[in-house]
Write the structure tokens for this entry.
Amino acid sequence: MKLAKFIDYKGGAIATEDIFMTKQANDLGAQWLSGAGLRPTRQRLSLARLLVGDGKDRHVTAESLYMAVQKSGEKVSLATVYNTLRAFCQAGLLREIMVDGAMSYFDTNMTDHPHFFWEDSAEIMDAPNDDLVISQLPLAPDGSEISKVDVVIRLRKTDS
Ligand SMILES: [Zn+2]
């Protein structure tokens, strides 16, 4: 599994900058958890701070978040990061975006929106929603319904 950087909308790497260590980041993280009825345990809070502590949306992988939390000095195992991300998804705090059926990205932006996926660097970012039109979908098989549609637009760099 490829490692993806801890990225935000701008596509730049976010390390554990001071902003994620502030009381405000802590408060935002705690609010985010309590809004979904999750108890702000120390481990949850340390991850929540890195996910929403600056008030911006971002996409992470379990690995990128694990690296960020290690830099922050908290002791949280990769398995715990993974399980906590899953719990955040179940609580409706994150949505999971699968690419290639193998790479999972977790998005704090819960609105419906398409994604650009950079094949070269395995980075993911939001694509403009206004330009996307889905005019028709195949019928769901009997006894099922479409729960959601994920649009991932794969990009590769051109020479120019
Ligand atoms: Zn997104």
Notes: The first helix runs from residue 23 to 35. Residues 59, 107, 109, 113, 115, 126 surround zinc ion (CB under 6 Å). Confidence is low (pLDDT under 50) at residues 1-5, 7-13.
